[in-house]
């Protein structure tokens, strides 16, 4: 059996006369070396072969020179293959220098080794430590990388406090770090794969500078919004392009061309930075400042006009318009994803300006003038508007409360504010009920039609049928001529629920208490909660405090560190919670230590409802409340739209050429209300503007053409 080290030594010292060739069994080559030894060429070749031999893997040496050895026989009996492409690993296909081995014992061929080495230059050194079969296949995109979801990063718990719902979020730092790394790798891959085209960058750079100038100088928030959306669509392309070495050169050409075209415009340093070093934080900060400046310029201009007006009614109309634009500016600023002190200061300043202008006293509601008899047929809460809404099945006082909340612009979440009132008093809206009665049969019949015409639905399992029906529901919604801006599945299905299902519970405990009760689990002990958050549950007899909760249940909620302290043991003495609890059960005198380390007044556990409520369907009640939220959302949106567009039409529109209707769907750009499709094609003269909203829950927009 030949030895690699011996052959290498012969090659180094006696290679000039071919001794290493005779040793390795290559007698013919050895004779040639001996014949030409006087030329010193064999000696030089021998030195090269010394390097080759000393670097060669042992099993490769054995394969080549120990042809009758046990190693060759074993290797031939147990053939090895590349784990990525399946190539048989032979002397010709195996990487040299003992490379290509993975930590799970598998190996890759020369071609795959070369591919991996292009991705990770340190693959040869780190292969056994860093890579296994799965990771290599992911690297070569043979297997997709395991996607880390945000659901794996955060753990959430929800608790209800009256009309509000509080959510506690826990963070898995290790998973978060993996998620960040994975997202960075994705981003790096996007940047690396970006197809850089100089001509496109130069053209878009010029468009970017023009849009930045328009946003900076306009007095119209809608113009700012439109231009910002245009910038956002291509800004990520600029960020990826900025990693290319010639990006600065191409952007400089855009800047030069812009200066040549608009020699009277001055580009400030911050605006230049937006294109030279594109960054979304800087872009959002720029847009925030521009929206604020746009509103300030508009309000100052309107105030000057107000000073010239003589009629008080005209002045009030101008003030209301400033307030409207201010609210629109706040809404737009709220959407900007930025955590900046200056950003929040801008929002605060706009709110202060609006509050100063909003000094007009509320007019006396027409509700005050109606009689009790009028409530049988309902009460119009927004008379003389484009779309009147009628409330019924309630009292004068309740309608007052609802109208006050609908008019209060400081209440952003109308559903949370109105839900207790609608749930307790079973208030209804005539127009919404008529909408449901009109389109709910259409919705249901369309689903049934799709079921009957679907062979897949008729011949599949129950679970598959459930999934298919959900698809049919979406198609049924799209077939509805007038699409209310809400979850119509909930609105149509919730209408079947008895509205009095929760009346007795609310009467006995109050909506605030019972809604909070539904936010907790029955068999769980809650710790570290503020007393005020569950004190009303204890007073109502719906929860137990520390005095009525078994000690062992309390101990199970505690950390091992706290349990060790209660046991008067050093940290880490008990490695398992069960052992610590068993120790306390065996030594009950230590349980007196609970009060030293646990705030017992912050512990509670939910109790079952009284026996008379055993037949109540809690899930049905929650479905009823979800239905009411959608119901209130439709009412609120329709009320606000009706008030807004009525005011828009009544104001001075002498400068308007015509009106158009716009329709936007934020959640699904491919779907548009069928009625809106027809209305959007029309033009309306300024003497006959469209009366928006067209139906309950309509989210069409009125566009004024100059």
Describe the structure in your own words.
57% of the residues lie in helices and 6% in strands. α11 packs across α13 (247-261). The longest helix has 33 residues, at 618-650. With 706 residues, the protein is mostly helical. The model is unreliable at 68-78 and 360-375 (pLDDT under 50). It is extended.
Quantity of strands, as a count: 11
Q: What portion of residues belong to β-strands?
A: 5-15%
Structural class of the secondary structure composition?
mainly alpha
Unreliable runs: 68-78, 360-375
What general outline do the C-alpha atoms trace? extended
Estimate the mean pLDDT confidence: 81
Helix content: 55-70%
Strand order of the largest sheet: 3-4-5
Computed CA radius of gyration, to the nearest angstrom:
38 Å
The main pleated sheet reads as: 3 strands, antiparallel
Distance between the termini: 97 Å
Number of helices: 32
Quick tags:
single chain; 706 residues; 11 strands; 32 helices; mainly alpha; three-stranded antiparallel β-sheet; 57% helix; 6% strand
Write the layout of secondary structure elements.
Layout: H1 4-14, H2 19-23, H3 27-35, H4 41-55, H5 58-65, H6 70-77, H7 110-119, H8 123-130, H9 133-139, E1 154-161, E2 164-171, H10 173-193, H11 198-217, H12 221-241, H13 247-261, H14 269-276, H15 280-308, H16 312-335, H17 341-357, E3 379-380, E4 390-392, H18 396-407, H19 414-425, E5 428-429, H20 430-452, H21 455-458, H22 462-478, H23 488-494, H24 503-509, H25 511-517, E6 525-526, H26 531-539, E7 543-544, H27 551-556, H28 560-566, H29 577-586, H30 594-597, E8 604-606, H31 618-650, E9 658-663, H32 674-680, E10 684-685, E11 700-705
């Amino acid at each position: 059996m030949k030895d690699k080290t011996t052959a290498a030594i012969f090659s180094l010292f006696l290679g000039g006369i071919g001794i290493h060739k005779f040793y390795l069994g290559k007698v013919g080559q050895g004779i040639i070396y001996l014949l030409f030894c006087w030329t010193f060429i064999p000696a030089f070749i021998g030195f090269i072969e010394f390097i080759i031999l000393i670097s060669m893997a042992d099993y490769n040496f054995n394969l080549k020179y120990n042809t009758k050895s046990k190693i060759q026989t074993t290797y031939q009996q147990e053939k090895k293959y590349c784990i990525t492409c399946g190539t048989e690993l032979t002397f010709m296909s195996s990487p040299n220098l003992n490379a290509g081995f993975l930590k799970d014992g598998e190996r890759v061929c020369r071609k795959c080794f070369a591919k991996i080495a292009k991705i990770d230059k340190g693959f040869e050194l780190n292969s056994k430590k860093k890579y296994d079969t799965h990771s290599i296949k992911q690297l070569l995109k043979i297997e997709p990388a395991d996607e880390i979801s945000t659901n794996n990063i955060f753990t959430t718990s929800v608790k209800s406090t009256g009309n509000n719902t509080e959510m506690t979020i826990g963070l898995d730092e290790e998973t978060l770090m993996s998620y960040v790394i994975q997202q960075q790798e994705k981003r790096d891959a996007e940047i690396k794969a970006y197809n850089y085209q100089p001509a496109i960058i130069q053209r878009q750079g010029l468009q970017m500078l023009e849009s930045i100038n328009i946003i900076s100088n306009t007095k119209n928030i809608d113009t700012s919004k439109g231009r910002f959306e245009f910038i956002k669509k291509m800004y990520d392309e600029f960020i990826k392009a900025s990693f290319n070495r010639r990006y600065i050169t191409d952007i400089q050409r855009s800047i030069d061309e812009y200066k040549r075209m608009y020699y009277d415009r001055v580009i400030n340093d911050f605006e230049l930075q937006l294109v030279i070093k594109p960054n979304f934080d800087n872009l959002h900060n720029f847009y925030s400042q521009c929206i604020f400046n746009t509103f300030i310029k508009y309000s100052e201009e309107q105030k000057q006009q107000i000073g010239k007006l003589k009629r008080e009614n005209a002045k009030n109309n101008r003030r209301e318009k400033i307030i409207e634009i201010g609210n629109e500016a706040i809404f737009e600023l709220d959407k900007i994803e930025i955590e900046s002190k200056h950003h929040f200061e801008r929002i605060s300043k706009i709110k202060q300006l609006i509050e100063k202008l909003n000094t007009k006293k509320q007019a006396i509601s027409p509700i005050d003038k109606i009689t009790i008899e009028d409530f049988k047929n309902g009460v119009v809460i927004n008379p003389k508007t484009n779309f009147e809404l009628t409330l019924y099945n309630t009292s004068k006082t309740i309608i007052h409360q609802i109208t006050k909340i609908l008019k209060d612009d400081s209440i952003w979440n109308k559903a949370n504010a109105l839900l207790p009132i609608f749930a307790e008093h079973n208030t209804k809206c005539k127009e919404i009920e008529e909408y449901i009665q009109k389109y709910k049969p259409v919705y249901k019949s369309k689903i049934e039609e799709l079921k009957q015409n679907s062979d897949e639905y008729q011949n599949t399992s129950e679970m598959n049928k459930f999934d298919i029906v959900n698809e049919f529901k979406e198609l049924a919604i799209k077939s509805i001529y007038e699409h209310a801006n809400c979850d119509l599945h909930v609105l149509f299905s919730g209408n079947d629920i008895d509205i009095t299902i929760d009346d007795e519970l609310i009467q006995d405990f109050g909506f605030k208490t019972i809604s909070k009760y539904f936010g907790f689990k029955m068999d769980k002990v809650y710790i570290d909660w503020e007393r005020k958050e569950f004190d009303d549950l204890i007073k109502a007899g719906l929860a137990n405090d520390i005095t009525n909760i078994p000690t062992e249940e309390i101990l199970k909620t505690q950390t091992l560190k706290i349990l060790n302290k209660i046991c008067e043991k050093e940290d880490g003495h008990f490695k398992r919670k069960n052992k610590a609890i068993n120790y306390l059960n065996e030594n009950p005198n230590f349980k007196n230590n609970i009060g030293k380390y646990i705030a017992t007044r912050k512990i509670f556990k939910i109790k079952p409802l009284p026996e008379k409520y055993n037949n109540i369907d809690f899930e049905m009640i929650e479905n009823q409340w979800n239905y009411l939220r959608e119901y209130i959302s439709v009412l609120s949106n329709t009320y606000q739209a009706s008030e807004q567009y009525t005011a828009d039409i009544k104001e001075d529109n002498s400068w308007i050429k015509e009106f158009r209707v716009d329709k936007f769907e934020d959640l699904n750009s491919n779907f548009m209300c069928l009625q809106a499709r027809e209305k959007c094609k029309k033009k309306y003269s300024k003497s006959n503007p469209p009366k928006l909203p067209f139906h309950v829950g309509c989210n069409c927009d009125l566009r004024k053409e100059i």
